[in-house]
């Protein structure tokens, strides 16, 4: 039997797109095919497999159990083919698309990415900083640096940094109230983003269960790095991750008045599609960032 008969690649490509997008219409738009042509290719692959792969419902399709088992394997196979062809053309390292949270991007990645580029001059890095959790199936991205618990279906994830938080402020601001000697002294100052749940967690751990933050003026700056700049300017006290501000601490622009640090269980992780785990540029970035942040694991 011919290989093309055993493996209907065109039909598999259509199946992969329809399964990923959850729509025959969207699959057709992505592949430049009519919905009728998509339906025909799906029928071909179902005949080849010998089982229905989709449940057809009014204005909606859903994968059958067989389809759910097949879809990730087909996606992985096409990713491997893509990487193999790109490698043969010599353009596998053309660009590495990184999505990262704004704080991690500005406070760690921007400071260190140069060493990755020196080690891999053929990989052009493109960085997008966003708090949005991207869908790898629908948006162009190779890897993402996310805040969370590390559990995302279909993705491989690696812990990068444990996130702990504690109040930080400028020494001059602390001196303006005669120093910060106990946690309640912080309440004499402007609290930057009193609606941040980190404040409630920290005050409770510090033995202040009733800080009455709800009545304070709301200030939401959108990123921890912005809050740090406001605190550095003496405009209030922010709750920050000290590991991101070693230079500010060393130069006396920020200081941590208490040793107490807390965590809400959400840390920084590197994530990427399991199907692309062996792509050379992803392997290169994974190995580099893990060695930078977890050198003892080598």
TrEMBL record:
<feature type="domain" description="HTH lysR-type">
    <location>
        <begin position="7"/>
        <end position="64"/>
    </location>
</feature>
<keyword id="KW-0238">DNA-binding</keyword>
<dbReference type="InterPro" id="IPR036388">
    <property type="entry name" value="WH-like_DNA-bd_sf"/>
</dbReference>
<comment type="similarity">
    <text>Belongs to the LysR transcriptional regulatory family.</text>
</comment>
<dbReference type="InterPro" id="IPR058163">
    <property type="entry name" value="LysR-type_TF_proteobact-type"/>
</dbReference>
<dbReference type="InterPro" id="IPR000847">
    <property type="entry name" value="LysR_HTH_N"/>
</dbReference>
<dbReference type="Pfam" id="PF03466">
    <property type="entry name" value="LysR_substrate"/>
</dbReference>
<keyword id="KW-0804">Transcription</keyword>
<protein>
    <submittedName>
        <fullName>LysR substrate-binding domain-containing protein</fullName>
    </submittedName>
</protein>
<keyword id="KW-0805">Transcription regulation</keyword>
<dbReference type="InterPro" id="IPR036390">
    <property type="entry name" value="WH_DNA-bd_sf"/>
</dbReference>
<dbReference type="Pfam" id="PF00126">
    <property type="entry name" value="HTH_1"/>
</dbReference>
<dbReference type="InterPro" id="IPR005119">
    <property type="entry name" value="LysR_subst-bd"/>
</dbReference>
